[in-house]
Amino acid sequence: MRWLLNFIGLLAVGAGVFALLHFGFLGGPQVQLQREFDRAMIDPKTSASLGGNLAWRLLFDRPGQVCAVTVELHQAERRATLFELPRSGLKDGTSLSLTDYTPVLPKLGFQEGSAVLKVIEEDCSMFRRRGQRSQSVVLDFTAPQITLTSNQHYVNQGGADVATYTTSSDAVWSGVRVGPYRFRGFPQPGGTGHFSFFVFSYELPPETPITLVAIDGAGNETTASLVPARFFPKEFRHREIPIDDRFISTKVMDIISQTSELRDQGDPLKNFLQVNRDLRIKNNDFLKQLAAKSAEQFYWHDAFQPLGNAAIEASFADYRSYLYQGAKVDEQVHLGFDMAVTERYPIQASGRGRVVFAGYLGIYGNTIVIDHGYGLMTLYGHLSGIDVHEGDMVERAQKIGNSGATGLAAGDHLHFSMLIDGVQTNPIEFWDQHWIDDHVTLRLGKSL
Ligand SMILES: [Zn+2]
Hints:
The chain has helices at about 1-20, 105, 245-260, 270-290, 435-445; strands spanning about 30-35, 50, 55-60, 65-75, 80-85, 95, 115-125, 130-140, 145-150, 155, 160-165, 170-180, 180-185, 185, 195-200, 210-215, 220-225, 230, 240-245, 310-315, 320-325, 325-335, 335-340, 345-350, 355-360, 365-375, 375-385, 385, 395, 400, 415-420, 425. With about 450 residues, the protein is α+β, with helices and mostly antiparallel strands. The protein has three domains: about 30-140, Immunoglobulins (Immunoglobulin-like); about 145-230, Sandwich (Immunoglobulin-like); about 240-425 and about 440-445, Glucose Permease (Domain IIA) (Distorted Sandwich). The strands form eight sheets. Strands 20, 23, 25, 26, 27, 29, 31 and 32 form an eight-stranded antiparallel beta sheet that branches. Strands 2-8-7-4-5 form a five-stranded mixed beta sheet, with no helix packed on it. It has a four-stranded antiparallel beta sheet with strand order 9-11-15-14, with helices on one face. Helix 3 (about 245-260) crosses helix 4. The longest helix has 23 residues, at about 270-290. The protein is globular. It binds zinc ion.
């Protein structure tokens, strides 16, 4: 009998250990569900609403050790399995799109309001240990509303415009989408509606739709079309730029020596291309990130001023072919104006604003970027001297530095760019008081 008791005892202990392991008391896998946000668009602190086409991301604390994940939605007695993922589909950061489920949930009897999302995971050990976690969510199937209130939109290819609109209070992001670019909307100061500056970027085909967008905290999205009353396609100029070894051994090598992530490639052409192509992209990405620093207020009121008495050496969106030893080696688009007067000519702020960058910026050399509010910024490049610091407020026509030839510049000139939410726009419009009156003042009135 004694051996039988011992055997039963062993069995019991074994079963207990198995249960402990299986149900995760000894540390089963940990899987987290995290809402996937387009960080530029939606504040992740908004409540964990569920309903639209937001994606959720699975995060594993021990990637590679989870063999199955089930995601369930519970509300009162209702239960729906949203995802059952086998091992092959499991990677840290796996995205789960809810797009397919949103229309189904109301048909399954789920109602707007509180619900619970459960994640059940199983590890790959022989014990198949299980872990589970829950997250409360709010189901929301109702999209926000958005209505265009401005009209008579005259849009130039490569140029800007202003849309005004009203949106329901549940929208956590609203603005304008043009092709791949998104432009934030803001509450109109002193008004009841919203407004958004947007750019019809130079390279977009004329038929690219302009769309108002409102998104709520659950990811439900509403769009409305903005159809221009007139659209003016533009032909941009084509220029050939000869590059020689002297330019590379001086200008290009200077930039490489001042840029920590670049190395001498031991070949003039490779050195030129890593600056003209790769660094150009990095510098422009930096400008896109700077857009987040824009203030929600109008610093400027009057038309912007160009550099007076200057010879225009290059215009906005000139298409450039670079020639080296008689062959075309690169193509880029010149985004801005090149204006030259005399060497070390005094450079003034083209409009009132706050300096958000003052320093060395690769191809642009010594550079100042001024924020004018609501996403609008101006850039002054190739400077020989900088008089201002990051954070300074500057008045229109205040001297901020001197022209020069730093960065990728063959001679002394000012490179001037204008950006809205990091997207380059043709400055010629903002230099023109009639354009400001018709496109901005008429729509925003006293706000400006
Ligand atoms: Zn330039």
